[in-house]
Amino acid sequence: MEDTLILAIDQGTTNTKAILVDAQGRVVSRAARATQITYPQPGWVEQDALELWATARQAIEECAQATTGKIIAVAVTNQRETTVAWERRSGKPLAPAVVWQCRRSTEFCRQLTERHLEPFVRERTGLTIDPMFSGGKMRWLLDHIPEGQTRAEAGEICLGTVDSWMLWNLTGGNVFACDYTNASRTQLFNLHTLDWDDEILALFNIPRAALPQPHPSQAIFGQSVQIGDLPARTPVTAMIGDSHAALYGHAGFQPGSIKATYGTGTSLMTPTSRPVISQHGLSATIAWGKANGEAAYALEGNIYVTGAVVQWLGQALGKSDAAQIEDLAKQVSSNEGVYFVPAFVGLGAPHWNAEARGLISGLTRGAGAAHLARAALESIAYQVRDVFDVMNMEAGSPLQTLLADGGGSRNDFLMQFQADITGRPVVRNLSADVSAIGAAYLAGLTAGVWSSEAEIQQLSRPQERFEPRMSAEEREKLYAGWQDAVRRALL
């Protein structure tokens, strides 16, 4: 197995990556391509589905040509909830990809809520009714594609999350399938039966004929076509949503583990022994599907805007990258009462308020760009604590250490403030590819590279640790100021 390699594709919101992982769990080759995002009107977020695949193909070709090892398996991990509609016969998209952040299905979700359907939907799917999830996006697409409903019922239209779109193209249009984790984020999938829920499908009026076949995350999904130096008929042996893959990449297999992936938004996730239907704004979800067809479960909290607030502020201040925002934030020793609530598209967990809008509070004549930069970075940590505290209450196992990954975790200021404001150590994974590595672990299990999760647990994962240094009194005073700012945003 020494020369065997696993190709993992990580199709994210802002870029598509491909990595090659060897039998020691090391990344031996890596390639990435940026993806474009458009905002056609307030609250709408779109991407070009063909570009998503083109960037994946380019990254695969570059990554695969950089090694002499043998690629024995392919893994896919992806941005979740983003929804693609394409014609089954031609494989051509019928509309832009509707991105997970997009709020265009708000009215449909409001109608479901007014019918008092949320408890029923949450019990079956683990999810609160919200425009983020794919089911409402699918409904919107069918309403706006000519003859969409009729064609979907006839099986002429494929409605899928990004994993199914990647797999369709990897297999040359031969396989239309998804994995349990992505299915569980559509709001159409029953956590208990591990299949599409017919009653929920009827509520959303989504034809089963238009949906992919769900499989466990660890499964043989199909065989690839040749793409550059990726050989034809290479088996695709794992697919998993990016947040779930990150938890797997941390080897967070047992209850009590908790990770935060800091990206455009942030996802916190902790494994649970069974579905935990939250009463305080978290989501029950599939952590991953096992090779035996069973599921591991998790509690998750989704924050809409974290890294995106740094990008927004950088553009507003004329700063070209996140490091400049960090440097600016370090110029002041405190926020001096300035708080930034980045509710650009509402607030996600644990608030789930689509009507909330961003605000900056506590400004005085002495406040400047450095205070805004500090408040923006602190807002990420405050939002993470909002979710962490609820998760610690509902998970059933005490959460002692926060595992961190994603682009935002590279920010030392943020990681230290995160440890301070939660009062827990933060352990940062030093890899930039935790989600892709997690997907590779699953693919390697299927392909026989590793024999068990215990063996994966022993693989090297370089880390750095941030200990809390703030007094409890200061921590709670700062957090009370944040909670006051959030209340203002929710008015």
How would you describe this protein?
The radius of gyration is 21 Å and the shape is globular. Strand 1 and strand 2 form a beta hairpin. Helix 9 (242-249) packs across helix 14. It has 2 domains: 4-249, Nucleotidyltransferase, domain 5 (2-Layer Sandwich); 307-429 and 464-490, ATPase, nucleotide binding domain (Nucleotidyltransferase, domain 5). The protein is 35% helix and 23% strand. The longest helix has 26 residues, at 369-394. The chain is built from 16 helices and 23 strands. With 491 residues, the chain is of the alpha+beta class. The N and C termini lie far apart (59 Å). It has a 7-stranded mixed β-sheet.
Characteristics:
single chain, 491 residues, alpha+beta, Nucleotidyltransferase, domain 5
Count structural domains: 2
Q: N- to C-terminal separation?
A: 59 Å
Tell me the β content: 15-25%
- Strand order, sheet with most strands: 17-18-16-15-21-22-23
Low-confidence stretches: none
Mean pLDDT: 93
**Count the helices. How many?**
16
Radius of gyration: 21 Å
Shape: globular
